[in-house]
Amino acid sequence: MRVRNFCAGPAAIPEEVLKEVKAELLDWNNSGMSIMEMSHRSSIFKEIAHSAKQDFIDLLFIPDDYDVLFLQGGATHQFSMVPMNFSSKEDSADYLLTGAWSKKAISEASRLSNINVVASSEEENYNHIPNFDDWNIDSKAQYFHYVPNETIHGVAIHSPPLIDSKVIADMSSVILSEPIDVSKFDLIYAGAQKNIGPAGLTVVIIKKSMFELENTNIPNIFRYSKHSENDSMLNTPPTFSWYIAGKVFKWLKREGGLEKMKQKNHLKAQTLYNFIDNSDYFSNPVRKTDRSIMNIPFTLFNKDLDSLFINEAQKRGLLNIQGHRSLGGMRASIYNAMPIEGVHDLIDFMKDFENKNG
Predict the structure, then answer these.
(1) pLDDT lower than 50: segments of the chain
(2) Which of 108, 203, 262, 298 is the most exposed place for a label (fewest CB within 10 A)?
(3) How would DSSP label each residue in 39-63?
(4) What is the SS3 assignment for 290?
C-alpha cells in the first residue's frame, strides 16, 4: 500500500515514475542490463544524461549562457565548494541568515572566507524574512548567498533580491515547484532529494562567466569549470539518480510544466494554511508573507499530544509528519509528487484528532 509521505527528504517520487523504473530495473530498453550496471561512458547512458539535461533546461527556460551540471555530494558539499571557487580568506562574501540551512552554509563558508551576515532572523526563531531595508550589504563582497526556501523552518523568499552582486542560491527544497527567472542568478544549486529524484545527486545551474572567476589553485574535482568541460563526468556521476531525475523531468513536462506545478503547489499550500489559520488547535509560526509553499511547519496547542498525533497519523497512512528534531512540532512537506488529495487526507485527520483530543 502506498502511503502519504510528507518527508522533507528523501521525499516522495511520482508513482508514475517509480512504475517506469520498476519496469526497466532489470533490463533497460532491451540492453540486457540495468542502468545501475551501465558505464557512464556508454552511448546509452550518455543519451539518457543528455536528454535529462535538455529537459531540465526546457522546464526552467535556462538561457544559453548558463550550463547545467549533475554533481555528487549533496547541497551540503556546495556550502564549501562555492566559497572555495569564488572567495578566499582575503575576501568577503555576503550571506543572509534565515534558517538552519543558511546557518550551516555560513558555518562552512566561514572556514574559507570572511562572511558578512547581511541580516538574520535567528533571534525570532526564523519565523520571518528580515526586511530588505535592514540588510547590511557589503559592496566589496565577492557574492551574495541565500536560501530561498528553508526546509526546516518553513520560511521562504518568493522573489530574488535585487542586489548588485553575484547572486548564489540554495534552491534544494523549492526548485521545480514553480517557474523561476534563472537570469536573476549567477549560480543555483539544489540537492535532488526533494523535487528532482533520489538522494546522491546535486544539480547546479551556473552562468558560464562565473568560470572566469574561479580559484584555479584548488583540485579539479572542486572546480565547476572542470565539471562543465567534462559534461559532468569528470568522475563517475551518480548514474541511477541522474536516470531517475530525467524521468521526473519528463513527468513534469507531461504534467504541463512549471506553470501547472505552480498552480497545484499554491493550491495545496493555501488549502493547508487556511485550515491551520482558522483553527484554535493548530498554528503556524511563520509570517504569512514569508511562508513556504513546500514545507509547512505547525504545532498543536498542547505539545504533550505530539507523540500521540504522530502515532495516530502513521496509523492513517500519513508518514513523516513530525517536525525536524531541532524544532519539534509537525511539518508537512508537500513537494510536487504530493497530490492535493494527500493534503485533504491530512486535514481530515487533523479534524478527527482535534475532535477526539480537543
Answers:
(1) none
(2) 262
(3) -TTSHHHHHHHHHHHHHHHHHHT--
(4) helix
Q: Which CATH class is domain 15-254?
A: alpha beta
User: pTM (2 decimals)?
Assistant: 0.96
Q: Please choose, from the candidates 291, 275, 267, 295, the residue with its C-alpha nearest in 3D space to the C-alpha of residue 349.
A: 275
The neighbour count for residue 43, using CB atoms within 10 Å, is 8
User: Helix, strand or coil for residue 99?
Assistant: coil
Helix H or strand E encompassing 169: strand 167-170
Q: Which three cell numbers stand for residue 313?
A: 497519523
Per-domain residue ranges of the chain: 15-254, 256-357
In this predicted structure, what is the pLDDT of residue 325? Answer: 82
d(Cα 217, Cα 214) in Å, to the nearest integer? 9
- Is residue 264 within 8 A of residue 273, CB to CB? The reply is no
Q: List the catalytic residue out of 28, 101, 242, 251.
A: 101
- What H or E segment, with its residue span, contains residue 189? strand 187-191
Alpha-carbon span 221 to 69, nearest angstrom: 13
256-357 CATH, one of 1.20.120.450, 3.90.1150.10, 3.40.190.10, 3.40.50.300: 3.90.1150.10
Distance of alpha carbon 80 from alpha carbon 90, whole angstroms: 16
Q: pLDDT at position 1, please?
A: 66
User: Among this protein's residues, is 194 annotated catalytic?
Assistant: yes
For residues 105 and 170, the answer to whether their CB atoms sit within 8 Å is yes
| Active-site pick, 55, 94, 170, 290 | 170
Q: Cβ neighbours of residue 210 under 8 Å, at least 6 residues apart?
A: 85, 86, 166, 186, 187, 224
The catalytically annotated residue of 166, 194, 207, 268 is 194
- The cell numbers describing 42, all together, are 556508454
101 is catalytic: yes
pLDDT at res. 136: 96
Give CA–CA dist 187/196, Å, rounded: 18
Separation CA 98–CA 89 (nearest Å): 24
